[in-house]
Amino acid sequence: MQYVKLGRTGLDVSRICLGCMSYGDASRGGHQWVLGEEDARTFVKRALELGVNFFDTANVYSVGSSEEILGRALGDDRSSVVVATKLFPVLPGSRVVGHRAVASARRLGLSCLDVYQVHWPNPFISDGTLMRGMRRIQEAGLIDEVGVSAYSQERWQSAEDALGGRVLTNQVSYSLVERAPERDVLPFAEATGHAVIAFSPLGQGLLSGRYDHDNPRANFRATDLPVAPPHRERVTDLLTTLTAAAPARSACGAYN
């Protein structure tokens, strides 16, 4: 496993971050496709064995049960890993931000959240409102680093101005079929010592080579970009190249 500094912090994190959106309890309002706790524990255990020490979840994943499952699965390893979670910005008054951070920390079994991210840019609520809450709980020691998700480079900088301090991370969709962050988000992060976390690095499964016209993806994102058939057809050449290149990199498991 390779490790990098998370921005200009002292946090050494694995280049691979295990996303935990698929862990949950369907009976508590989670999607029917979620993995239950026993299966989730197997994934977390194997990730730890392979050297993964960076985990990402959110308070809305299966109505909080993803955080609970991850916290229990990490067990005694919680103190030696980096955990990032997210706040979904619906009616997030500055005090509500604190209440939700406390609830996430409790579900994860942590006294301090390593990275606390705004899950999505709210078009109706200013970053000033959110960041006042973030600043308050950061000064109180409830969170270490502040992050955002799916922010443009311009709004990322605006959020940092509103916080009056570093907004360390921006979690964005980034893969071989979604390279928009290369225009401005990645250059900004590289120049300033911030960090980009990629979500959907396999294009929501498209780059796995598993899905084609005869085997369409059958879950709640079956029509989302870039998995939908019109977009799948446009990346046929890319998939052909990956299929040929994967064995040379010992990364052909997904293509077998």
Write the layout of secondary structure elements.
Blueprint: E1 3-5, E2 12-14, E3 18-19, H1 37-49, E4 54-56, H2 65-74, E5 82-87, H3 94-108, E6 113-118, H4 127-139, E7 143-149, H5 153-163, E8 167-173, H6 185-192, E9 195-199, H7 229-234, H8 236-245
Parallel strand pairs: 3-4, 4-5, 5-6, 6-7, 7-8, 8-9
Antiparallel strand pairs: 1-2
Helix pairs in contact: 1-2, 2-3, 3-4, 4-5
Number of helices: 8
Mean pLDDT, as a whole number? 87
Share of helical residues: 25-40%
C-alpha geometry: globular
- Biggest sheet layout: 7 strands, parallel
Approximately what portion of the residues adopt beta-strand conformation? 15-25%
The helix/strand class is alpha/beta
How large is the radius of gyration?
Answer: 19 Å
Instruction: Walk across the major sheet and give the strand order.
Output: 3-4-5-6-7-8-9
Distance between the termini: 23 Å
The topology string of helices and strands comes to EEEHEHEHEHEHEHEHH
What is the strand tally?
9
- Indicate the low-confidence ranges by residue numbers: none
Question: What does the model show?
Answer:
The protein has eight helices and nine strands. It has 256 residues and is of the alpha/beta class. The strands form two sheets. A seven-stranded parallel sheet has the order 3-4-5-6-7-8-9, with helices on one face. Strand 4, helix 2 and strand 5 (82-87) form a beta-alpha-beta unit. The longest helix has 15 residues, at 94-108. The two termini are 23 Å apart.
Brief summary:
The protein has 256 residues and is an alpha/beta fold.
